[in-house]
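tool=predict chain=A
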Amino acid sequence: MRLDRSEVNRQRRRAAAVVEFAVISPVLLAILFGIIEYGYVFMVRQTLAHAAREACRVAVLQTTDEPYDEVVARADEVMQAAGLSGHTVGMIHATADNNWTESVSVAMDRAEISLVGGFFGELSGEVVGTCSMRKEGVGAATE
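tool=predict ok
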């Protein structure tokens, strides 16, 4: 049985398409996973900022006392709701011109955030969300 010329050309085109797909598919998969990784890191950054904001809101209340266990607990609640763990909470108490401020930072190690490990580069450093607010009921005396 002899194949005609159009059948041979069709088989060659199919083979060329398979080879082209085999060459381009790793690039497409790397782009796809890069987009997913970027989106996930962006979501974690927003969650860290939200956790810091919520914890700072608790820290500036007049009823909040040392050692600020409620602040850390509120940050933990927000992070747990997002399914994230392995974070650290830091606080700074500052006064300038008799204005008390509370600053809260929530941080995670980049290596713990990544979905694809170090495929897209080295994973060093931290991703941090911070918030600063003026303490309620404390500050400059009114005239």
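Strands lie at 88-96, 99-109, 126-134. The first strand starts at residue 88 and ends at 96.
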